[in-house]
């Protein structure tokens, strides 16, 4: 079963990469209808292509930004959005068919039925969120809502992380579910916040605001930058503020990554420690390069792809800590006052795997 879940993770990784290309090539609004079943078949005749193009011509993006687009150019952006949606369908099938097969054979371990079922349901919900995001750009806007984009991206990464954690649980001794240590909760929360602002940067095209590093226009935070009212709007809608936070919160995540890596290495997870160090280091360098390159397509796509690897590295490291912590606590046989087995949540309490 773990191999099945890992295949879902691999498909989600490809999905996020294609989603990044779709966004950066401004292809996301090229398909203006949501047809989960019949939409799997692309236009096959010139008449069908002309019909899709006419539908695209009705939305603000075409009317205000792409009014001179040719049919050949439309086919190019249609391709990426169709591939993105097709991958969603494939992930849905890969999440459903083996699940039904395992359930029919009663091969799902105790405690994993609700988790594997939840993965399939989350994939379905993600498809609906994707359309909810696209729908925000079909009537009044020339792009999709950056808030809805953030929900779409973070949901994808949550499904990826949850599925990967479940796969690791199935591969652990006795297929025992593992609890997230306290340091892991802090790390995941900090990473989620960084990913949220990364999605805001993408949705607001905030990466184009300043292409210098480490200063923004020669200042830490440009004084001449517009400031929105009420103040809290700046943390969601202001491209300058959003880019500023995304720049520097990365180093908070880096500090937590170093702490997690240090603890996991002490618990015998040298490989997980190296993976985490490498992923977070490369991601920060790619983020800087994305800015300096003026948001080059290839660099920006690599930055988004590496974000998935960062999530994977955190999940692998924290799961190793959880496994070491639970194993050590059981061996020690230490109980709480309420009689339950004590599971240390601070990795430093564990001397070895």
UniProtKB/TrEMBL annotation:
Q: Tell where it localizes.
A: Cell membrane; Membrane
Q: Tell me which residues bind heme.
A: 246, 303
> Part of which pathway?
Porphyrin-containing compound metabolism; heme A biosynthesis; heme A from heme O: step 1/1
Q: What is its EC number?
A: 1.17.99.9
Query: Topology versus the membrane, per the UniProt entry?
Result: Multi-pass membrane protein
Q: Which residue spans traverse the membrane?
A: 86-104, 116-134, 149-168, 180-202, 244-262, 274-292, 298-318
Identify the keywords attached in UniProt to this record, alphabetized: Cell membrane, Heme biosynthesis, Iron, Membrane, Metal-binding, Oxidoreductase, Transmembrane, Transmembrane helix
Report the coiled-coil segments.
none
Q: Which reactions fall under this protein's catalytic activity?
A: Fe(II)-heme o + 2 A + H2O = Fe(II)-heme a + 2 AH2
Look at the named UniProt entry and state the broad enzyme category this protein falls under.
Answer: oxidoreductase
* Pfam families (UniProt xref): COX15-CtaA (PF02628)
Which metal ions or organic cofactors does this protein require, according to UniProt?
heme b
- InterPro entries per record: COX15/CtaA_fam, HemeA_Synthase_type2
Q: Which family does it belong to?
A: Belongs to the COX15/CtaA family. Type 2 subfamily.
Under the subunit heading, UniProt states: Interacts with CtaB.
What's its job? Catalyzes the conversion of heme O to heme A by two successive hydroxylations of the methyl group at C8. The first hydroxylation forms heme I, the second hydroxylation results in an unstable dihydroxymethyl group, which spontaneously dehydrates, resulting in the formyl group of heme A.
- List the PANTHER family hit by this protein, alphabetically: CYTOCHROME C OXIDASE ASSEMBLY PROTEIN COX15, CYTOCHROME C OXIDASE ASSEMBLY PROTEIN COX15 HOMOLOG
Query: What's the protein name?
Result: Heme A synthase
User: What's the source species for this entry?
Assistant: Sphingomonas humi
């Amino acid at each position: 079963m773990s191999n099945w879940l890992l295949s879902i993770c691999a498909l989600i990784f490809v999905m996020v990469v294609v989603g990044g290309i779709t966004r950066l090539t401004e292809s996301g609004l090229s398909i203006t209808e949501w047809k989960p079943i019949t939409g799997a078949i692309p236009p096959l005749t010139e008449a069908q292509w002309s019909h899709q193009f006419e539908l695209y011509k009705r939305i603000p993006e075409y009317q205000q930004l792409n009014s001179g687009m040719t049919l050949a150019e439309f086919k190019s952006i249609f391709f990426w959005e169709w591939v993105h949606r097709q991958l969603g369908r494939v992930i849905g099938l890969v999440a459903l068919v083996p699940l039904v097969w395992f359930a029919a054979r009663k091969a799902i371990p105790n405690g994993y039925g609700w988790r594997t079922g939840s993965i399939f349901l989350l994939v379905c919900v993600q498809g609906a969120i994707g359309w909810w995001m696209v729908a925000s750009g079909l009537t009044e806007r020339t792009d999709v809502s950056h808030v809805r984009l953030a929900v779409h991206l973070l949901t994808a990464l949550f499904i990826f992380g949850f599925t990967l954690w479940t796969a690791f649980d199935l591969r652990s001794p006795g297929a025992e579910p593992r609890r997230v240590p306290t340091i892991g909760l802090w790390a995941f929360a900090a990473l989620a916040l960084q990913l949220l602002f990364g999605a805001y940067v993408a949705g607001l095209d905030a990466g184009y605001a300043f292409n210098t590093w480490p200063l923004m226009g020669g200042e830490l935070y440009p004084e001449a930058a517009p400031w929105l009212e009420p103040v809290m709007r700046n943390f969601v809608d202001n491209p300058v503020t959003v880019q500023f936070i995304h720049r520097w919160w990365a180093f908070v995540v880096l500090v937590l990554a170093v702490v997690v890596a240090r603890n996991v290495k002490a618990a015998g997870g040298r490989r997980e420690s190296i993976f985490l160090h490498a992923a977070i280091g490369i991601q920060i360098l790619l983020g800087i390069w994305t800015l300096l390159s003026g948001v080059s397509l290839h660099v920006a796509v690599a930055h988004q792809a590496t974000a998935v690897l960062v999530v994977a590295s955190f999940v692998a490291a924290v799961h190793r800590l959880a496994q070491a912590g639970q194993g050590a606590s059981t061996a020690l046989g230490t109980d709480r006052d309420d009689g339950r087995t004590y599971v240390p949540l601070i990795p430093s309490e564990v001397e070895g795997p």
